[in-house]
């Protein structure tokens, strides 16, 4: 029996039509919003939990808060001026004009990538810029969470000693003068985009930049206290794994959302991301077993991250077999630089990169960009890239040129971040200390925030061996007649 027809008020019909115009691709828009949410969850709570758990107990609150603060600060800066510097009208070949991105309700096709490719001799259009059919607000938010996670990844290099006020100042400055340059140059129509350098989802814009800027900032801030450098155990390995799991699963949005459409590239990107991450994790773990006789849980997380980072610049542009190759290399080369080179290179020994962000993000990101220049499949490249006939070196033709472009593009990101991060740190140091005081370094969270991660004791409660002793809940352990644990 047919259902009765529903009478829709005229006013409601009009509102519905305005909210869903003919040009809107609801499927693409839904996937873009989901992807943005997944990337946001990588930071809050993903990296907040991971950072708060992987550090020494006395730095749990400070480390988690640095990530929490950076996310909020980037959101406001992004919509106020930084989005347009990354994806707006060209100011310089590597930088866009600053401006607000508030109330963006119109078709993104009109403003996403205004610069198009004119490589033909007669000046005609070779390949049009990306033009998804959904509101600007979707793009602004999607790119916002990318910018936020970049600053949070960078924070991993300076955990456990950076002055929190200096960090609060550093975040908007670095976003403005470093991140926006890489984003515009490679994604927003800048000179590297025009030239055809491949960065599918941020291997250069996010990971290479955060890794280089992180180790540069670590140099300027200085090392942790001697005690912290010698012994820095994670305060909660299980919670660290929970944060790592959010990071891994959230990468489906990180790489799957970057074609700006729910298409073939996005499906390939999600599958390849998981293939590479799993392979890299296993390779890193087996190297730990072979050389150190124990599978390290932290090492497994590092291997997972290097795999996710390495596949990022080419996630939707390579075949599954290439993702395995990239996983093998991302699980071994960063392992070698972290476990062997770092311990023997005096310069790296002097710089205290707390979580090894240089190895897990800069090395893995640059490696991924180079491998994309070798393994990028021609048909997949043509679905995504602004320059036609792009291909990896193993496919012949102009592949060697692409490999060269990848090296040059990575070199620009490295050089810019070294110089600009140094300038920012130097200017901040003229106003306030970059590093905490020795007293704060000794005490930790309680001195910096007046808060501690774990309230193990009640207000004013004293340690009582009958209540808090190691065997206080073990009835099988011998006790004295007074009930106190007997020392044996």
UniProtKB/TrEMBL annotation:
Chief place where the protein resides: membrane
What is one GO cellular-component annotation here?
plasma membrane
A matching Pfam family: Ammonium_transp
| TM segment ranges | 29-52, 64-83, 140-159, 171-198, 204-222, 234-254, 266-285, 297-315, 321-342, 354-375, 407-431
Membrane topology per record: Multi-pass membrane protein
Q: Name one GO molecular function term.
A: ammonium channel activity
Subcellular location, record wording: Cell membrane
Q: Which NCBIfam families match?
A: amt (TIGR00836)
Q: What is this protein called?
A: Ammonium transporter
Q: Which organism is it from?
A: Oldenlandia corymbosa var. corymbosa
